[in-house]
Amino acid sequence: MGIAHIIDLPKILDARGNLSFLESARHIPFPIKRVYWIYDVPGSEIRGSHAFKRQHEVLIALSGSFDISLHNGKEEKVFSLNRSYLGLYIPPMTWRTIQNFSTNSLCLVISSTSFDEADYIRDFDSFLFERAEYEAK
Ligand code: TYD
106 CB less than 6 Å from ligand 1? Predict the structure, then answer.
């Protein structure tokens, strides 16, 4: 399993407006199965608060900004995303919470899996238990 890290995506600076892109094989550390996005989030709301058993993902703040708290079962780390050319890679078995959304922010999620509710761990204590078991393997 990889470690959560920021991915610096290409940016083509242009006086007419900038452009960034990603290609599955070049920039994303897994084959892309699904893309979804979170938008119109009221400033005080919190999204996520769960872990995925198998899903790898990359989050991008296509617009605006938000904070992502990651917990690996031992410690928490917070990443702030506020540039549309930065992605945050999140490995499976990571508890993740997204909050402090700015007005009109847009969170793009690039996922390694199709949607599967059975892949979610939605209870933090269950996550801590499963994560410890996972590490003991
Ligand atoms: P969820 O992943 O819990 O949202 P968040 O983590 O951003 O707070 O998803 C919210 C609801 O949307 C849940 O009922 C499942 C549904 N959903 C899909 O049907 N397909 C998808 O690809 C996603 C991401 C969610």
Answer: no
